[in-house]
Task: inverse folding
């Protein structure tokens, strides 16, 4: 893993040494893809355009947020900002990295929540837009444009997370794949016809189950809060 982590540090160095005008772009992208945006921006927008799509965005955002926390407890995952010093790499080799206000994230880093949660929650929007443009255009390029924009956005999010030293490259790749898989697999199972009470009950169940699992893992002697 050390070799993989070291390669990730070199990629972060390469990104940070790029053109200065790219820095505001990476910072903006990592802010845009903050998991909180799913609930404060993407869900309201999707719900305004189409109720079913909006509920699907909210549902996938909720489940992927919960699953991301659970996966991090078991996969752990170092954070580049901390690892580069704790591993001793900074004292062995010349490492030129810059710190940003969002660099000092704590907690396990695998998989990337930004990539996983955004990837899952935006999938219903992508499929809805793809269906819409497919009805209005015969051009294959136009039909694939929502999927292309989705892929480019997730790539940009992943690079932005490496740029700010919040994640290693392999963590963002896992997050992107997990998010897309969740979106693809769970969108058709969105409980659109259920009442608000159902979603409140599910949210409480996820919260209580995660707290119970946290307690069990700690009791088993695994320090997931390392």
Result:
């Amino acid at each position: 893993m050390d070799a993989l982590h070291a390669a990730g540090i070199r990629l972060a160095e390469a990104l940070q040494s790029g053109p200065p005008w790219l820095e505001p772009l990476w910072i903006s992208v990592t802010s845009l893809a903050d998991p909180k945006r799913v609930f404060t921006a993407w869900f309201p927008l999707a719900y305004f355009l189409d109720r079913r799509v909006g509920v699907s965005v909210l549902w996938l955002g909720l489940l992927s947020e919960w699953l991301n926390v659970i996966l991090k407890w078991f996969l752990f995952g170092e954070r580049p900002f901390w690892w580069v010093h704790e591993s001793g790499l900074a004292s062995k080799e010349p490492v030129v990295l810059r710190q940003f206000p969002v660099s000092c994230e704590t907690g396990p880093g695998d998989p990337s929540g930004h990539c996983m949660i955004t990837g899952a929650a935006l999938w219903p929007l992508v499929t809805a837009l793809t269906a819409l443009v497919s009805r209005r255009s015969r051009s294959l390029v136009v039909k694939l444009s929502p999927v292309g924009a989705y892929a480019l956005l997730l790539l940009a999010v992943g690079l932005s997370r490496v740029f700010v030293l919040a994640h290693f490259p392999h963590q963002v790749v896992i997050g992107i794949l997990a998010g897309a898989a969740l979106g693809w697999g769970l969108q058709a199972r969105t409980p659109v016809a259920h009442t608000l009470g159902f979603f409140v009950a599910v949210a409480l169940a996820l919260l209580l189950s995660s707290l119970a699992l946290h307690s069990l893992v700690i009791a088993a002697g695994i320090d997931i809060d390392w």
Summary: Residues 1-220 form one domain. Residues 114 and 176 are 9 Å apart (CA to CA). The mean pLDDT is 90.
